[in-house]
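Hey, can you fold this one?
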Amino acid sequence: MTIDRYTLYQVFKYSLYAFLALNVHWFFVEEHAANELLYPNGVGLGDIYAAYVATIDTAAWVVLLLMFELETYILEDRHFTKRVTLTLHTLRVICYALIVRAFFGYIGNLQSVMDVSVMEGVSDLCALVSDGWSYSHDFEEYTALTLANCSAFSTATTFLQFTDARAVVDVTGHINIVWLAWTDVINAGVWLLVVLVLEIDVRLQEKNLYEGFILHASAVTKVILYGILLLAAVYWGFYGDFVDFWDAFLWLLAFFFIEMNVVEWRKEVLEEQQAASG
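Sure. Predicted structure:
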C-alpha cells in the first residue's frame, strides 16, 4: 500500500495541530508549578487569568487556528449556513477577546518581573535557606533554596528580590528574565498583527478582491511579521526554555499551513473563474 503526497501532507498538518493542543497541557503544568510560589494561599477566582495566562492564551489560539482551518480548507460555500456562520463568528470573538486579554497579561508579567529591589545585607544565597526563599533561574521558573543547591545557582554577592514573589535573582539573571518577558510581549503583539492581516486576507478572498497591490502588500507585511516571530523563537531557543521555543516553532508551522490553505483557495477560485469565462 502506498500513501500519496497529499495524504502525508494532511497527516503532518493535523499531527501538528494535535501537538499544539498538547502544549496547552504543558503550559498548564509549568504555570501551576510557578503558582505554588506566586499564590501560596491558592489561586482565587480573580487571579485565574493572571495565574494561567499562557495556558488560556494557547487554548484560545488553538481554537482560533481550527476556525481558520475550517474556513479556509474544510468547509465549502454550501456549508456556510446562518447557524454555522454565527457559530464561527461567535467563537472567533471569544478567542480574540481572550487573546487580547492575554496580551495585556504579558504586559502585566513584564511589569511584575521589573518590580524588584536590592536585598540589603544578603551576599550569599545560602543565608536565605531557612526563610523559605526560592531562586528564579528562568522566567516564571523558581526553585526552592536548600543547603544542597544554594551555592550552585549564582556566585554573585548582590541579589534582587521580586516584589510579588518570595524569590530572588542575581543581576545577570534578572536582565535575562526581563528580556524573556519582553519577548513574550513582542511575540503576542506581533501575532495579533498576523491574524489581523490574515483576517483581512480571508475576507477579501471571500469577495474575490485578494489581488494586485493588496496581495503584494499582504505578502510583504507577513514576511516582516513572521520574521520577527522567527527571531523570537530563536531567542527562546538560546535563552528561554524548550517549551517556549517548541511552542513558537510549531505555531509558525501551523500558520504556514493556513497560508497554504489561502493560496490553494485563491488558486481554485481563479481556476473556476477561468473555466466560467472559457
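Strands lie at 116-118, 134-138, 141-144, 159-162, 167-170. Let me know if you want another pass with a different chain boundary.
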